[in-house]
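Forum: Protein Structure Q&A
Topic: Joint prediction for protein chains with partners

I've read a bunch of threads here and the consensus seems to be that you should model interacting components together rather than docking separate models afterwards. I'd like to see that in practice. Below is the full input, 682 residues plus whatever partners are listed. Could one of the regulars post the assembled result?
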Amino acid sequence: MATGAAATTAVLQLEQLRTYFATGDGMVKAVDGIDLEVKPGRTLGVVGESGCGKTVTALSIMRLLPRTGHIMGGRIRFGGRDLVQAGEDEMRELRGNAVSMVFQEPMTSLNPVFTVGYQVGEAIRQHLNLSERQVRERVLEMFQLVGIADPGKRIRDYPHQMSGGMRQRVMIAMALACDPVVLIADEPTTALDVTIQAQILELMRDLQLKNRMAIVLITHDLGVVAEMADEVAVMYAGKVIEHGSADQIFDSPRHPYTQALLASIPSLAARGRPLTAISGTVPHPLNLPPGCTFAPRCPRAFERCPTAFPARMDQGGGHDVACYLYGDQAEPAATPDASRARPAR
Amino acid sequence: MSVVAPAGTDVAPRSGSARPLVEVEDLAKYFPVRGGFFQRKVADVKAVDGISFTIKAGEVLGLVGESGCGKTTTGRLLLRLIEPTRGRIRFDGRDVLAMGARELKAARAEMQIVFQDPYASLDPRLPISEIVGEGLSNHGMKNRRRREEAVAEILEKVGLRRFYVNRYPHEFSGGQRQRIGLARALVLRPKFVVADEPVSSLDVSIQSQVLNLMAELKAEFGLTYLFISHNLGVVQHVSDRVAVMYLGKIVELANSDDLYRSPQHPYTQALLSAVPTPSRHEKRQRVILTGDVPSAIHPPVACRFHTRCPLARPICREAEPALELKAAGHWAACHFA
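Posted by a regular:
Agreed with the consensus. Here's the joint model:
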């Protein structure tokens, strides 16, 4: 990956991360050798369709993979250590503190039997050594920060008493309570209506300006990415297939998949004319096509494509693309790294 | 309290002179809220509260709004899958609400629905042949061979292979299931299809396949659609005219181009400005609404949008604005539009 000088300033770096799931039918390579990084005060958008590995990437960073998922190789560099190797105690100290995550569905990620105030307070009690009174003050402060009106009253609410937008604000308050260095937001607004989505995105931008946290924004919505991200990584079937600044990705997408995704958004096409559609469907993870996994659906595929997965070829200015239309280099074969692999639980 | 559009017999905003296929007048649906001892009715959710519109034959009317605005209820009311609290629905000149059971069943062959969730709307225990063919046997096609032939034919029309007939829903992807949903709706050759969020659960690349298919089928079968969606981009792409709903009311109704180019109602303006666009250079003035959509049990009096409206004045809390003609074919319910 071509990121020379910038690499020194990144707060979070994924190197050749591989996360596989053991299923009854075989090994699913949900994330298969990805390199990504994010810098302080910047937002990295990770886009792709269902099953491309976006969420597994997030869960790997948090080390919150389900029992069947294992990090098989690679590094997750954060604050001078490798989170792949970190112990569970170390991870518990980091989670919700230096690295926080906001999940897609706020209803299922909040505990229905505790008040929201208690749950946000819990994140603070876990990591900061504060008195009960200071915890309460901090919770009120966080509620105010995320725009919950009448916080003194709302902290006594249970999750079901709040609307979806309010619950997502509570989730964000909880994630930000300990001033994280990195916030991982997995489809933070997908379950919300557009007018509420606009509020939440605005809130995330404001908070980022205040505390310079790095955001990894995972979404399938290219509109959200265009508005929020400084840099964009496009994923397909467990790989990053294109990466660049938001301007590069939206103004001059190189990969045929990125181009097709952008062209298939209805609001861009003229009404009445057929939309650009990508034929076929995302390949089954247990039955990936050989070589470039997008080749069977690609309008510009040629003989080279099914031979090996292409390397990420540098297009200048931090823009790179894994496609043989831009060079002939294949991805180096995966180095078996069994000594580093560990079940991430 | 209902909004009856002005101008004599022209009770509902209509787009042309031809007789509309669907005419809706002052349609309302209140769902009772029960509680307390004996589960008595304690209040009503005013899901749809007096809406009027028409849909011309061959037209696509888009219906947009946020969750809970009443768009799905409207779709179900049109097919009389639920009974309205009041109002009138005419389909092809016939009064749908006056129909007896047999007449309604016959009419349902001409009006069909495609549901949002292709995982929940197909019975997992039935093979595709029965899911798609059920409507045919219900409507008198008892000959099994003819039914199978009709099913195979419609499957090909929606882009599925005919040998899929013996498979079960779990063997299909989301996009394919939505094609099956379309096949089930179209096998009876209806005139009118209510499409309730037909592509919302699909990925973008699959979404465009299904939208293109719906456009092809519309041309081939001469269909009329009520296209319900929360996705403003999708609605703009497919609709001839668009109605915007807020808390059970239509607040704006216009030709698709007019609505998107010059929205009149402050809610429509806020809604459109809230949509994130993939175009990085089109920097718009964003209207960010504060607060949530109020409860439909006790909606704000007078103009329902006044609690969140950036333009609200005292009159908005006193008088309900009627859905009025603001420009040619462009209706809006706002005192200041």
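The longest strand of chain A covers residues 26-38.
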